[in-house]
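Re: weekly structure request thread

Next one in the queue (546 aa):
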Amino acid sequence: MRFKILGGVLFLLLASFSILGAEEKNDSSMKEVLEMNKKLLQRVESLEKRVVELEDEVAKTPVIPQSEPRTAFHPSLETPPQSSAESSQGGSPLKASQSSQLCLPVEAPQTAQLSPMPTNGQPSSSSVIAAIPTQISIASKPVKVPPSEDKPVKSKLGMNPYGYVKLDAIFDDSTAYPGNIGLYIPSEGVKKDDGKFYLTVNQTRLGVNIPSFQEGKAKVSGRLEYDFYGAYPNSVAPENKSEVMLRHAYVNLEWPDQDFSILGGQTWDVISPLNPNTLNYGPMLDSGNIGYRRPQLRLSKGFKASSNSKWTLQMAAVRTLGKSDVFLAGTGDAGIDAGSPTFQSRVAYSFPTYSKAAKAEIGIYGHSGAEEYDYLANGDNKKVFSRSTGFDVKVPLSKQFTIQGEGYSGQNLDTYYGGIGQGILVSTMGKNSGTIYSAINVASGTSANTDFLGVQALKSHGGWMELNFGPFKRWQWNVGFAMEKMDDDNLPGSARSKNDSRWINTFYDLNEATQVCLEFAHCTTSYKSLADGTNNRIQSALMYKF
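Done, posted below.
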C-alpha cells in the first residue's frame, strides 16, 4: 500500500515539475507550486500514519467462526480471486481443510477526479490536491478461520470415468425372445415369420475406475459401472425411459508381493470368465455361454511356475439367486431360503505364446449351491442344487489372430443363463405336473400342495468357440459358434431341448473414439415336440467411447 502512496506522490511531483517548466519565468507561479508541494508532503505523512493505525486495528481483530469456509473478496472485483490450487483445478472450490485464510473486505477506493482546468490552462493548487484519493483501500492481514464441520463433498482419490454411448439397430426375420436381446427363438408353430425391428440405446454404459492407492503393503482399487437394461424384459417402462442397472460395484485389495487379492462387491462370476465378442447384449447366453454378475467375496492367489508362467487359484462365496413363488407355501427367493451361499472356484495356468507379453490361459472351474423350495406351510421343503463343471481357453497365436472358447456341463443353470432358460421340473399329481420353472419365466404356483411329488434339477451341457482377427488397420473381425443341449429325456413337449447360434461381425474405427459395427447371426431353437424356431438377425451399431 505504501508503494501505491509513493507512486501517487511521484505522479504529483512530475505534474508539479511540468507546471514549473511551463511557467519558469513566472515567479508567482513558482511560489504557488512550492507551497502546494509542502502541503502534499504533509498530507502524505498523515496518510502513512493512518495506514499504520489501520494495520494495528486489523491485527487485533478477533477470529469470527464461519458457518461455511469462504474467501471474501474486494467488492470492486467482478469475481472472487482464485488460489493457485483452484486455478490448477479449473476453478473448483477447495476443501474446507484447505481454506485456511480469510481476507476482510474494505471499502472500495474512490476514483480520483480532477477539477476542470482553468481558462489559462494552469491547474490550481487546490485542483491538484483534490485529485488525491480521500479513501485508500487497505489490504488486511490474513486471519485464520477454523474449518467448518460441513465440508464440501469431494473424493480424496482421483477417479477415471469411462464408458460409451451405443445405438443399436436390429432387424429379426422372426421373433427373438425377449426382444432387444436375442436369447432363444419361440417355436414357428406359435409365431411364424413374425419379423421385428428395434432401435435401442439401452446398452449405453457409464463407469468409474477408482485407481489403486497404497495402503500399507496393499493396493486398494475399485469400480462402479451401470447400463440401462434395468428390469428388462419385465420392466413396464417404455423404451425411451430406460431403467438404470448396476453392473459392477466392488473394491479390490491386492498385495503384489504375495500375488494375493481380496475382492468384495458385485462383478462377474469366477466360473466361465470369458465372453464372445458380439453386438448382441446377451453374448450367446442361454446358447452355450454361462456366467453372470452377482454379489461375492473372492480370494485370488498366484503361484509362480517359471519366469513367464504361473498358476492362479480363485475361490468365491456368492449370492445364490433362486426362483420365487414356485409353490403357494413358498417363502420367497429359494436361494435365500437355502441359508447358505453358493461356492465357486477356478484354477488356471497362464504362459507366453508368440511373445512374452502375449499370454495364453487355460482354466477349469466349478460351482455348487442349494435352492430350497417350501411346498407345505409347515416348512416341509425340497432342496435342489445348482452345479457346474467346465473349462475356458484363450490363446493368442499372433498379433492379429486369437482363439478362445468355453465348455461346461451342469444342472439347474437358469440363473447362470444356462439350460436355455430352464432350471427345475416340478412333478405333482395335479394340473401343474410337468411344469418347468426358471428365473426368467416362472409359472403359477401349485394350488394342491399336498399333491407334490418332487422337484428335479434339469441337466444340460454346452459351449462356444470364437476366432478373433485383427486389428487390420481400422478393422477387426470375429466369427463364432455356440450350442447348448438339454440332457433330460423326460422333458415335457413344450420344453426347449437345444439352442445353437452362429455369428460373424466386424468393427471399424472411424477414429479413436467412434466405432461402427455390423453383425449377422443365425439362431435355431429346437423343442421336445414343437416345431423349431429359427431367426436371422442383422444388427448394426454406432458407438462413441470415452
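DSSP finds five helices and 22 strands in the chain. The CA atoms of residues 95 and 153 lie 8 Å apart.
Next request, please.
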